[in-house]
Amino acid sequence: RRIIGYARESTRDQAINGFNLDDQEKKIIQYTEIFYEKNTYNLTIVREEGASAKSLDRPRMNDIVKMVKARQVDIIIIHNLDRLTRQVRDLATLLELFDQYDVSLVSITEKIDTKTPMGRFFIFLIVLIAQWEWETISNRSKRGIEESTRQGNYTLAHYPIGYRRNPENNHKLIVEEEEAEVIKQIFEAIAYNDYNVEALSRKMTQDLILGRHWSKHTINKVVHNKIYYGTLE
Question: How far apart are CA 106 and CA 119, in angstroms?
Fold first, then answer.
């Protein structure tokens, strides 16, 4: 049997669940040693680092799909279902593909093998519940961020040029005076001095403003960032 052991983690998964790659790999190896006779299988571990389960478009997952289509796989083993996907639609796509190429999927934690009708039923049920739970948590987080923003807090991950996070309150921004003057100059150059973004980026880079390279993209982000008008989206 040609077995693929698939291990995946994202930063968030590792922090919350502790499903690090080494642990998943260890469990997959132990499982194959227990349930498959020695010298009857060839196990290959595929590790996916820093990849979300929101989409199947992941480098190593794409490699596995290619191997399945090339009929180079008989069994795929995962530690638990959300290592594979959290989307019912993606699960259906994978199961249809696996069935077409006679590949069975084994999930160790849920004790599921898709070669049985009951296994396929339960795998859909579990992923459906997991997706509902994930979307519920996501919606709560979005509502919390929105309410925090309404209360005047800065809730984005990165702060724009001209600001710094307040060291005394991480949810507030303070003006960084030197950079703020440069931001004002950018707006004035475009509004009053007939500079376009390309010419301004070239001039600011040549003049070593703030000792950095100024691309058209950077200046475009500045002039379209509503926070400089007092609005936070």
Answer: 9
Give the pLDDT score at 15. 47
CB-CB contact of 52 with 11 (8 Å): no
pLDDT band at 62 (very low <50, low <70, confident <90, very high): very high
Q: How would you classify the pairing of strands 42-49 and 75-78? A: unpaired
Q: How far apart are the first and last CA of the chain?
A: 53
Both tokens of residue 116?
A: 């049985």
Instruction: Report pLDDT digits (tens) over 111-123.
Output: 888 877 777 777 7
DSSP state of 79: S
CA gap 23, 125 in Å, rounded: 26
61 close to 72: Cβ distance less than 8 angstroms:
no
Sequence-separated (6 or more) residues with CB below 8 Å from residue 124: 88, 91, 92
Which is it for strands 2-9 and 104-107: parallel, antiparallel or unpaired? unpaired
Give the side-chain half-sphere CA count within 13 A for 107: 21
The helix (H) or strand (E) run that includes residue 27 is helix 21-35
Confidence of residue 12 (pLDDT cuts 50, 70, 90): low
The whole-model pTM stands at: 0.55
